[in-house]
Each structure stands twice: as structure tokens, then as C-alpha cells.
Amino acid sequence: MAKASEERSMTSRIAKRLFHTGLLALALGLAGCEVKSNPTQEESIPGTPRLPEVAKMDIQADGPGLGKAVYTKWCSICHSDGPGYPGTVALTERYKGTEISGVLLKRTDLDPDFIKGVVRGGLFNMPNFRKTEISDAELDALANYLASSK
């Protein structure tokens, strides 16, 4: 009986030591780790394609170039002329077999009210833009710019 009690005591001590050793190893392992909740693009997973950055520019509240400035900052990243622009690619595919261009700046059929509705509500894969991103004045200028950019 004493032998069984001794064995249980020995097993208990070994289990405690293993448990504490495991905790120590875990603590040391975590101490060497730096956890970031929001890594930058430079720190992202290798091989992941970089997303293009929105043009960094200040848009003036008024002026003759406001529509173009809004287009350059918010729209050109997806809707410029060329194969690498997802908005242009999608519109080109959508209007394949018609006279309508997939390039926004080459469109002759765009109505300012339609442009405003698409910008505020989004369409297909295009996201909507809130008033905190594109103000009403900026949207008016953008809609007029695109409607007259034939």
C-alpha cells in the first residue's frame, strides 16, 4: 500500500513538472512572437498581389478641375484605359458586340443622374461611395466631367 502511494506521489510530481515545463515553453515561445492585428501590405503574405493605392491627393472643394481630380483619385484606379483595370474589363465584356466603350472617358451615353446613382449605390462588382468619401459637390463635378468627356 505504501508502495502504491509512493508511485502516485511520484507520478503526480512528474505530471506537475511536465505541466510547468510546458507552460514555461509556451510563455517563452509567445514572448518571442510579435503579433500584429493589421499588417501593412509590405508585411503581408509573400506572393499575395499588392492592391493599388488610391491616389493621394487633396481635392479642392470647387474649381474647374474638380471633376477630373475626383475621377483621378477615385475612379481611374479601376476605370482607366487598358487591360489591367477591372472596371474597364468588366464594362468591355458587358458591352461586347455593341458600340459602347468599356472606357468611361470614351463613353458618349453617360447621363449625370445615372453616374450619381451608380456612384452612390454601386453596380455589379463596383462598390458604392458614401458622402464621406465623395461629397455631393464632388459627385456633381464628377458626373458633369464624365458626361461631357467625349
From TrEMBL:
List the molecular function annotations (GO) for this entry. Answer: electron transfer activity; heme binding; metal ion binding
User: Per its UniProt entry, which superkingdom is the organism in?
Assistant: Bacteria
Q: Show the PROSITE patterns listed in the entry.
A: CYTC, PROKAR_LIPOPROTEIN
Carries keyword Translocase?
no
Q: Which InterPro entries match?
A: Cyt_c-like_dom, Cyt_c-like_dom_sf
| The Cytochrome c domain, residue ranges | 62-150
Q: What is this protein called?
A: Cytochrome c domain-containing protein
Q: Which organism is it from?
A: Novosphingobium pentaromativorans US6-1
